[in-house]
Amino acid sequence: CKRLEVCLMDQPTNDLLHKFLQPSLLYNIQECYCVLTNGQFVPCFVLLQFLNLPQLKILHLEMSPNTIPTVDNTHYTNKCTELEECIEMNSTLQEMKIVCIGITSTIASIVRGVTRNKTITSLTMHMHLAPPPPPPPLPDGVIEQLLKDNNTLQALSLDIPDELLPSSLNIVEVNTPLTALEMRECWSGKLMTSSLLPYIKGLHCLILHDPYPPHLLFLSHPSLHTLALPLDTAESAIELFTILQTNTTLKALSVWIMEERVYISSMGTSLQEMLTQNQTLKYLEIINDWYRDIPSSFLSFLTTGLRHNTSLQQLSVSIPLNEEMRTFINVISQRNNLTELEVNFKPDQSYSNCSWEEKKQIMTPLFHEQVLPAVTNMLQSHTTIRLLRIGCQYNGESFQSNWIELVQHLYETIFIHPSLEYIEITGYLYHHLIDTFKDKKKTLIDKHRKEQPHKPLPIVNF
Questions:
Q1: Which domain of life is it from (predicted)?
Q2: What percent of the chain has pLDDT over 90?
């Protein structure tokens, strides 16, 4: 066995984990994905035991102890030093992801060890605060030394609470050969003001959780292949979409619309132009918080842009459920370049003042009588789609008997589709959606096997 996946949720302890992590028992393990929750153990000690596995190449470790036992300070300090040296001297580990309570000495040992390690190419450290009182901040210079002295790290993702940040960050030299960087919310502000991004050259993948001027990103990183960027103003959205009208390197884009004010007409126009002119983007995700309204006009801009786009293969969007929805789905049905689609249907902005119950009363019949038939028709026309996710948040318990036929027609279309491999229906679901599927499942499977004996059964998930 070379791969280990385990989740220990039943009060793991230092002694139990010591017995479990014997190198003699796990000698051949090269990949380890482990979640440890509850229990009483010291993260530093546990991490050290994992790193002593002799052939380990990939370690993803998530630790959330209920209690961290009190240990002798000298013993703990020695273990932290041992952890640092163990990481430094490790010659097999290539990828390490650690998610745990942020203990200053443990974080510092990991960072220092990775700084001098010669084989680790990917490091993810996501730390969360322990219960009060908070630990002291990291020593000055620890992060700077990592970025200056490490010469193997290609992918870095850091999320360390502000309370644990050193008193100053003075990043003026980056020699680490990073090509992928994720800067999560706690880090973004200070690292941005320290001008980290301009000092890194050659990034292909950049994931940000705080806004940043798009023109500065592409000025420093013109060869980006993947970008995730929050947008908090219409101006930043227009700037980004305008740049991408002529960009030929970016392949995947995820934007998070942070404020409703971003959705102005000129933003929609710039998105439309970007989709029309850019024929190299393969993946587009537009994230909208469930409680934020989307203007009715936005869907028209999106639909027009998609009508002229031939490059997108994966699309994930939230759209208002209005009259434009049918046109949108009809355009999708003609875009055989799209193989993966995720659409979340939201109430139209005209219903923004309605209560939750009123929105459910509006959305439930619309979902059954407009969305399901439109999706069914799309599947009948679209012969290359492999993955489909549809969601609707405001669904009530009301039910009309004529909806059963619409649901059945959708399921029948799914099981005779030539390319569909997976479909997921999410949101507040109705019992009859699931019950109808259970009732018809055997008939649907039999028909599929008869008509498409060489195609795997599509997976239907609720």
A1: Eukaryota
A2: 69
